[in-house]
Amino acid sequence: MIAVLAAVEVELAGLRRRLRRCQRLSGERQATWLGYHGDQTVLLCCTGVGRAEELASSLLDRHRPSLVVSVGSAGALAPGLEVGDVVICQSVQSTRPGNDAVRSDEGLLRLAVNCAKEARLPLRHGHSLTVDRIIADPAEKEALHHSTGADVVEMESYWIGRAAQEIGLPFFAVRTVLDGPRDQFPDAPNAVRPDGTLSRLRVLSYSLQHPGRLPSLFKLASLHRRALPNLTRFLEAFVGAFNTLPVAEPA
User: Where are the domains of the chain?
Assistant: First the structure.
């Protein structure tokens, strides 16, 4: 079983539509689906925004996949990264002191690079930084890049990687750039429920209460339309590669 974890449903929706017999699992705190791609079983899990530290260990321990992939959108910190670029993360680190970086599995990295090239995606190599809050300001992005050396920033991958590492599961992280290093990130507070699913009612309510923020919401939707199709193409190629390269079940 391949486990693919992301913060929010929209980041998994493209792959979910391409799975056979994909069903949402009942009894899970988070939005979780099980489906099939070729001969491979694929588990899709939402951690919710900023909740991976709390949930990743129990989720992986409960389902015990053969490998773990942390995916989703990210903000670019490094110059030269553009919206839609697929960033193969060689390592992920946390801003909290005393936490060693988690490295992606070398074999999975090589496979990911081949899949991205075959899919003709805008491929970049880099390192990801997991933070505790959304980094929206270009000046703060630049400062983080200089102080940490990270190329992209997100809120989940370090905790997912550490949880996988603790139980001996191969781990790999990939991110698609949602906002460039000089872009002000257009946030939509409370649009995502705790289980990682999007609440259109909350988005509508926020829009009515803050009509001046509508351009930011439209911009966020536009960025998702540019970035997430590349993530879906990558994931379909990556998961599909295991139809000819079987994944061993854990002992």
Answer: 2-241
Cβ atoms of 135 and 178 within 8 Å: the answer is no
The answer to whether the CB of 23 falls within 8 A of the CB of 35 is yes
Would you state the torsion angle of the CA atoms of residues 148, 151, 157, 161, taken in this order, to the nearest 10 degrees? -70
Amino acid at 223: L
Alpha-carbon separation of residue 189 from 53, 169, 199, 227 (angstroms): 20, 34, 11, 20
CA angle 111, 117, 119 (to 5 degrees): 100
Contacts (Cβ under 8 Å, ≥6 apart) of 211: none
DSSP-assigned letter for residue 246: P
pLDDT tens for 96-112 read 888 899 999 999 999 99
pTM for the model stands at 0.87
From the number of C-beta atoms within 10 Å of its C-beta (0-12, 13-18, 19+), residue 147 rates as exposed
pLDDT 10s digits, 177-188: 998 898 877 666
Amino acid in position 189: P
> Per CATH, the architecture of 2-241 is what?
3-Layer(aba) Sandwich (3.40)
